[in-house]
User: Fold this.
Amino acid sequence: MEQRVTIEKTQPDAWKAMYGLSVVVSKSNLTPIQKELIKIRASQLNACAFCIDMHTKEALKIGESPQRIFLLNAWKETDIFTEEEKALLAITEEVTFIHHNGVSDATYKQAERFFSPETIAQIIMSAVVINAWNRIAVSTQLPIGK
Assistant:
């Protein structure tokens, strides 16, 4: 694949704003593993090779197990993710596929069992930000890192 336009160079103000939003979201009270699970799962759903590559490497670096990364695509069919993580992943998927049915009441109520309103907002914003980065990377055919 040939890389296309470089948004960082052609739209520097937009890139800086996007990066700034990422920095704000990174300061959430989610654990580092939770942050990476959101990023990896949304990136899988969006088929964003660049972001899958980046965030699986980061997850491994901070201590996530290869098995959990390998099974993330099938998180509903395994018991290696906690109920809290499953609630987080459900919101991530429904935000990513917002055009299907939005975030369902059942998913939201499940999240409320584990997370405060502030943390739910942080999960939603984390999903929104990685979805935006996925769209940039896929649209511009950003090559994976080596």
About this structure: The CA atoms of residues 53 and 144 lie 6 Å apart. The chain has a mean pLDDT of 96. The radius of gyration is 15 Å.
